């Protein structure tokens, strides 16, 4: 493959043709001996090996080994000296000119072999050869420039050699070849991927990453800074990888393949390769751009988002439908620590969260996440209607279901408040409004019977006073004020037991264990001794809080 880069000039010189110089003059190219033809001719001769043949063979092997061990930079320098000396002569020997041209061709071949073996498995030896080859390229480039400034005299037929442009073309062919070979490699670690497209993308992406890390860690030191070899390789790999991904994107990939393509384009390539800890800040990423043109990228992202929206919508509707079927069947919610529990909020939050997590790895523009979170607003609207319809029905499990869903609504509220980037302010407010309506619906379910019992009845004024006292206890934060209010309530309602006091205090999150013990002790010490003087009917004795005693004992709050 890479030898073909030189075939044009080599074949022309071997044919003994002509070439025009910069001034349009035509000159003869010296005819070169074809080493392959010589070798074939010798093979056709008598196979009887004489001592002389063996000696010639041994000398050839020794000479080849000596040339291999010799630094390419030194060889290049010596050839340039020979070139200078030869073309200073008035009538340079044609035979010597032919021999020098052959030596230059041999040198170039060794240079391209060294470059071609950049990614071989013996780094220490190979890198030294590559370093020498690069130095040789620089010497030849400088010599090209010297001959371009020569206005008089003969110019060697092999000038300019253009080693640098040939080097860059060779790198491009190497990159394309390595990416092609990567897709044919069965050992690139893609066993867990479900489609040929995924395996191709993964193999190519891994090859880009491995080769770029090799360049920055070792190969870069073989080149002078002005060649900027790291960005040269980065541009070539980017161009080749982009062309192949563009072909795959245009092939009409399935939705699952589409998301994997986007995963590499928008996440793996920019974040894990270009911004790798060894590469970050060293590659001119602004010059590279995206792996796909914006039109192709928009088409892929729209395909992915449309599919993901449909999936999220289906999952949310399924979760709500399953919950509704449970209500309407008369089944009561699960009890966890004596509390009614519904998994609806956890399931819905998991659906949204997992979709957003995948979205962040697949789509670069995070504002498009609102196409997913928009379905959370639609879900909450449907959820509110379902609960309101359920409350209107005469269901035996309505109170336990509403208890469970009051907790769900609080979980939804906490989640929506935390969502800062994926929900617009307007959508956030609408979601919170739907939850407030659900909250009111649930509490109306519990307090409506009390309102009916209390309905302008003068004998139930004591109940209003009691409710106001409870509200004050829930509002107060100062332990001293709270203690006075609790003592007042205990004197007004003697059936307020220690378990009830503990239950009320457990609602106060700012109290220490010492504060709770002090308030309970004060309530017991200041109760009315003669309960006959109290006119309030029994109330707290009808409120069962037996399970609270167990919790109090477990928490060590007993005095």
Helix count from the secondary structure assignment: 21
Low-confidence stretches: 1-55
**SSE string:** HEEHHHHHHHHHHHEEHHHHHHHHH
- Over all CA atoms, what is the radius of gyration? 43 Å
Task: Please give the share of residues in helix.
Answer: 55-70%
- Helix/strand class: mainly alpha
- Rounded mean pLDDT score: 82
Strand content: under 5%
The side-by-side strand order for the widest beta sheet comes to 1-2
What overall geometry do the principal axes of the alpha carbons give? Answer: elongated
Count up the domains. 4
Q: What is the straight-line distance between the termini? A: 90 Å
Q: How many β-strands, per DSSP?
A: 4
Largest sheet properties: 2 strands, antiparallel
Describe the structure concisely.
With 559 residues, the protein is mostly helical. It folds into four domains: 4-161, no CATH class; 171-289, no CATH class; 298-453, Tetracycline Repressor, domain 2, CATH 1.10.357.50; 458-555, no CATH class. The protein is 68% helix and 2% strand.
Describe this structure in words.
- By secondary structure, the protein is mostly helical.
- The protein folds into four domains: 4-161, no CATH class; 171-289, no CATH class; 298-453, Tetracycline Repressor, domain 2, CATH 1.10.357.50; 458-555, no CATH class.
- Helices cover 68% and strands 2% of the residues.
- The protein contains 21 helices and four strands.
- The chain has a two-stranded antiparallel sheet with strand order 1-2. The chain has a two-stranded antiparallel ribbon with strand order 3-4.
- The protein is elongated.
């Amino acid at each position: 493959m890479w030898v073909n880069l030189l075939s044009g000039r080599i074949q022309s010189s071997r044919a003994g043709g002509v070439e025009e110089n910069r001034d349009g003059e035509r000159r003869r190219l010296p005819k070169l001996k074809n080493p392959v033809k010589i070798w074939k001719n010798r093979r056709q001769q008598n196979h009887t090996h004489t001592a002389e043949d063996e000696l010639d063979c041994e000398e050839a092997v020794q000479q080849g080994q000596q040339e291999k061990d010799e630094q390419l930079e030194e060889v290049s320098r010596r050839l340039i000296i020979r070139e200078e000396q030869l073309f200073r002569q008035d009538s340079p020997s044609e035979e010597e000119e032919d021999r020098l041209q052959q030596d230059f061709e041999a040198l170039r071949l060794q240079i391209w072999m060294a470059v071609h073996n950049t990614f071989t498995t013996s780094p220490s030896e190979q890198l030294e050869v590559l370093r020498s080859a690069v130095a040789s390229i620089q010497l030849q480039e400088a010599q090209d420039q010297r001959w371009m400034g020569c206005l008089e005299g003969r110019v060697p037929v092999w000038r300019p050699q253009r080693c640098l442009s040939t080097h860059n073309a060779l790198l491009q062919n190497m990159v394309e070849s390595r990416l092609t070979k990567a897709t044919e490699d069965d050992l690139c670690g893609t066993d867990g991927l479900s489609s040929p497209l995924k395996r191709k993308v993964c193999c190519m992406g891994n090859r880009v990453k491995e080769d770029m890390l090799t360049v920055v860690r070792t190969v870069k030191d073989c080149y002078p800074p002005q060649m900027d070899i790291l960005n040269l390789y980065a541009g070539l790999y980017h161009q080749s990888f982009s062309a192949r991904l563009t072909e795959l994107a245009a092939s009409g990939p399935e939705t699952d393949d589409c998301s994997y393509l986007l995963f590499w384009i928008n996440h793996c390539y920019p974040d894990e390769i270009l911004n790798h800890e060894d590469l970050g800040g060293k590659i001119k990423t602004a010059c590279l751009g995206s792996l796909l043109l914006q039109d192709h990228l928009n088409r892929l992202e729209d395909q992915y988002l449309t599919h993901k929206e449909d999936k999220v919508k289906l999952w949310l509707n399924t979760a709500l439908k399953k919950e509704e079927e449970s209500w309407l069947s008369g089944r009561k919610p699960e009890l966890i620590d004596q509390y009614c529990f519904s998994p609806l909020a956890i399931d819905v939050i998991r659906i949204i969260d997992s979709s957003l997590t995948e979205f962040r790895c697949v789509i670069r523009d995070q504002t498009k996440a609102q196409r997913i979170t928009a379905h959370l607003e639609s879900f909450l609207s449907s959820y509110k209607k379902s609960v309101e319809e359920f409350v209107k029905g005469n269901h035996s499990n309505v109170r336990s279901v509403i208890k469970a869903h009051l907790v769900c609504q609080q979980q939804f509220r906490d989640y929506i408040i935390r969502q800062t980037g994926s929900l617009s302010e307007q959508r956030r407010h609408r979601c919170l409004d739907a939850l407030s309506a659900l909250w009111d619906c649930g509490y109306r379910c519990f307090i409506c019977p009390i309102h009916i019992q209390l309905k302008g009845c003068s004998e139930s004024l004591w109940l209003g006073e009691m409710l106001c006292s409870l509200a004050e206890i829930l509002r107060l934060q100062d332990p001293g004020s709270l203690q006075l209010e609790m003592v007042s309530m205990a004197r007004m309602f003697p059936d307020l037991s220690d378990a009830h006091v503990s239950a009320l205090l457990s609602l106060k999150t700012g109290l220490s264990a010492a504060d709770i013990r002090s308030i309970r002790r004060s309530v017991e010490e200041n109760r009315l001794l003669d309960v006959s003087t109290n006119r309030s009917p029994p109330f707290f004795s009808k409120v069962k809080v037996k399970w609270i005693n167990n919790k109090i004992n477990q928490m060590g709050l007993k005095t």
